[in-house]
Amino acid sequence: MTTRIEKDPLGEKAVPADALYGIQTLRAVENYPISGLRPLPAFVDAVIQIKKAAALTHKETGRLEAKLADAIAAAATEVLAGHHRDQFVVDVYQAGAGTSHNMNCNEVLANRGNELLGGARGSYAPVHPNDHVNMAQSTNDVIPTAMRLATLATLPPLLDSMDRLAKAFLSKGGEFDPIIKSGRTHLQDATPIRLGQEFSAYGHTVARHRAKLAEAARWVRALGIGGTAVGTGINAEPQYPALMVKHLRDITGLELEVGEDRVQLMQSMGDIASFSGALRAWVLDLNKIANDIRLLASGPRTGLAEIGLPAVQPGSSIMPGKVNPSIAEMVNQVCYQALGLDVTVAMAAEAGQLELNVMMPVMTHNIVFALMIVGNATRVFAERCVEGITADAAQCAYWLERSPALVTALAPKIGYAESAKLAKEAIATGLTVKQLVTERGILKGRELEEILDLRAMTELGVPGGKGLPGGG
Prior knowledge:
This protein has 472 residues and is mainly alpha-helical. The chain has helices at residues 23-31, 41-61, 66-80, 99-116, 129-133, 139-175, 195-218, 240-252, 262-267, 270-296, 326-350, 360-384, 393-401, 411-414, 416-429, 433-440, 445-451, and strands at residues 3-8, 11-16, 180-185, 188-194, 222-223, 257-258, 307-308, 390-391.
């Protein structure tokens, strides 16, 4: 491997001759051989977008010679188009604040910018990574801004997948509305519910979380770029923050705002922690829904088997014909991973000191990775599971007619104690509630049919209670 010699304040090192990165990136690679994980594409994009916006801003203010600004912007455009991605090589777990990743980006753009101007890699002339690419910036305002950009850029696919999942559940809610089944609480028989009500409720849960995530993202739009080292803005001209946000809006297509207090935005990672918390809340309900789907589909002979899931792959290497709820199981595993990522974000958000939180690299990786995997899992859950769910109306009816909880409809008529006796007898004898009521002559004719109207039991009111307060 041929090399070139580069210098930094710590001395000289041999850098691979064909590398667009430079000596400071190489030191980071040597210092942090931790995970083999490289920065997620959204994080690379975000920092490069900031560098491009800075070059355009400095060209506009006249602080940076147009030739140099154009070269930096052109190099950034290449990266954003997907080129040179193998040059971003610093491990996810690196020095605090993200200085290593920031310098990796500075060096790549400087070297490529110089090439575009006819220069050589490693010369850092006329474009210098610190003096020009990093002009009016600090790692301390670049990385928290990049964290916000990467989060906002990664969110839309998740929101789209949640829209699809909500639509799938609501569609099934309409399709399954005629099917009455046994409700269950504490995993025990409860009063009747329509299968459509269960599925519509899942859809409304998804939709509510979608709205909460979109609201939480609103706080992430405020950018502290221009705060430089400690939030005060030393070395940044007064018009710089507003121009940066203007150019970043154009480059990213995101809704962005100039932060009101750049010191506050540097000190606190609360906006990201709050957003991660909103994502966590969705993950908790997503996991619950996936577990419900697995339970409702359990069987096919020794479980509930009230719904059928699409068969996506053979379920066993030893049991022929076995089909598992594979997609729902994948969702469970993603949810567990995402919950761990949220814990990391929360602990890292708390770990800031005074003017800076140095744990930003791990926070950025975790929130962006969580958005990616939860978004993908949500989409696949809708596409390869929920949209293909079928209902077994006969099985639902089978369990329902045997449920002792049907005595609940009798309680307003014969009292709680007598109803409880009937429930116990139904369990002991194997007879249905309706059979017992008929046998004993407790109710008959139209009154029996009205009180034990299964559909009426799934609506607000007292079955057979016409004329009663709150009755049907």
